[in-house]
Prior knowledge:
Structural class: mainly alpha
Number of helices: 2
Number of strands: 0
Shape: elongated
Distance between the termini: 48 Å
Radius of gyration: 16 Å
Oligomer: single chain
Helix content: over 70%
Amino acid sequence: xxxxxxxxxxxxxxxxIISTLxxxxxxxxxxxxxxxxxxxxxxxxxx
Length: 47
């Protein structure tokens, strides 16, 4: 039980941090301008 709680807590914490970061990054990109976001999408696709 202790192992499960410890490992799970770390995983959940990491996932929360990652999702929060990606969400805020997305909001910042949307707020700045859409051309930047679309160019990121193109480069992500290998363009």
